[in-house]
TrEMBL record:
GO terms for cellular component: plasma membrane. The chain crosses the membrane at residues 16-39, 59-77, 134-152, 158-178, 242-263, 283-301. Residues 337-573 form the ABC transporter domain. It is found in: Cell membrane. PANTHER family: ATP-BINDING CASSETTE SUB-FAMILY B MEMBER 10, MITOCHONDRIAL, ATP-DEPENDENT PERMEASE MDL1, MITOCHONDRIAL. Keywords: ATP-binding, Cell membrane, Membrane, Nucleotide-binding, Transmembrane, Transmembrane helix, Transport. Its main location: membrane. It is a multi-pass membrane protein. This is ABC transporter ATP-binding protein. It holds the Pfam family ABC_tran. It comes from Tissierella pigra.
Amino acid sequence: MSTFFTLKDFFSKQKWNYLIGVIWLLIIDSIQLIVPQIFRWLTNDFQNNALNNKAILKYVFLILLTGIAIAVGRFFWRIYILGTSRELEYYLRKKIFDHLLSLSPNYFNTHKTGDLMAHATNDVNAVRMAIGQGTIMIVDSMFMIVLTLIMMVKTTNIRLTFIALFTLPFIVIVVSKFGKIIHKRFKIVQEAFSDLTDITQESFSGVRVVKSFVQENLIQSKFEKVNNDNLKKNLDLVKISGTFHPFIEFISSLSFLLIIFYGGKEVILNKISLGDFIAFNSYLGLLVWPMMALGWVINIFQRGAASMDRINIILEETPDIVNNPKTIELEQPKGQVQFKNVSFKYPDSDNYALKNINFSIEQGKSLAIIGRTGSGKSTIASLLLRLYDAQDGNILFDNIDIKDLSLKSLRENIGYVPQDNFLFSNTIAENIAFSFDKPTSSEKVVNAAKLSEVYNNIIEFENGFETILGERGVTLSGGQKQRTSIARALIKEPSVLILDDSLSSVDTETEEKILNNLKTIMDTKTTIIISHRISTIKDCDEIILLSNGEIAERGTHESLLLNNGFYKNLYENQLLEEKIINN
Ligand SMILES: Nc1ncnc2c1ncn2[C@@H]1O[C@H](COP(=O)(O)OP(=O)(O)OP(=O)(O)O)[C@@H](O)[C@H]1O
């Protein structure tokens, strides 16, 4: 039960709904117990020749009335208990989603999206079933067992009731043995489903790569393997559930045999009336269902508990990057950035991605970071945004250690254009205005689009800024995506703008226009440009050249050329490339 402790807030909020539902359930159960009594009266009247038309009508009316009452009552307990379990589904999904959002980026490097999706769907469903259907069955079966036993003793005698209960201990043993196996197998089934969701998600996210490399067969066979594995694990579960239920049904129905034998004898010996015997059998019929329900409850609870275990693992995960107890908010940010002896290793990596990095950018100045692929350029941006924390050294924003700033304040003041330029399946306007909680003025959106030189492309689309992007709409070209991402960062009017290789798909003419636009709006702000192209960064106030995570060269474009180092080499190679292309 401690597995479900995570849901205590939900239960304390919803306890009244559950209580009302349970009360309705108990009322209906009690009404159900009247039905065998009606049969008993009817049989006894019949046996005593007291059954006339009026009596038959009375019994028909009574049966009808109990039928209606049961139907109405069932409606209410369904609404209160099953309705509340739907609320639980909503609550739990939101809790998982909100918690995942609070986790640091590294969590998502080590956990597959498909797996997380499976938790939010199948596992949440299994918990809902346990809390909804499971609760109904446990309350229902316990109450029915107790009341039915009382009615059985009252209708006949304690001896016959004990005989009817002969099978109960066997049921308890079978239930506990099977329960453990079901728990284990259901966990395995859920893991297999996670793998299935994962491969489906990955195959279709990468469908363009799959098609262009003509690897449909490879993906198909991978899917087939996982699908097959999922089938096998489900069949293992079905086998155990398939043995469990008939077994329980068989054991519980043995009671009927015993009662027909012993009860029949008591009728012959006139110890009980025929009416009593029929009512007793009806009660036994009522008892079989709760006994079987106990079996189902165990099955459903074990599945729910297995899924809750899996969900708890996510909910217990703590974010690596959190606010300090006392955080500072940036009041009037200037955008000064300083790296002091910063060294950093990615989690689970033995090598330093950055080693002893030192630089400082004053307000209104620009810094360029250049270097071979994998030299650590993007890592500098990630550290400044506190997507990771450096193991050594300090990073200062306006002379405050970024670990002392609130994450919100720090990130709100940085306009980041990431390398992957991810855009959501929303309208272009919504993508550009992504940093605003409320809809922002279209004038701001248009202005940002003009500054990033994507405006003319957007207005050419039939729906302009209202064009929907992604799976449900238009696919932008690489350059259009990059410029839309730049607009998304510029609209924030950030104190620090980071362009991470954000002009690589833009032609040099457009690049120049964008850089000129930036010069005017960023004159009092800080710009960090990460690039492979020297044409993008040559006008920056300082350029640092990274090599294997270390600053190998630094200076202005002119001073670096005089250095005769790797930078000059790179510049000459790029000039040569340009010449070849232009010829
Ligand atoms: N999440 C991560 N976990 C482990 N290692 C990582 C991670 N991200 C990057 N690295 C490694 O850190 C090093 C620096 O990566 P980084 O992305 O900063 O390079 P970069 O200079 O920006 O490269 P590029 O020009 O290709 O974008 C690389 O060796 C890379 O493999």
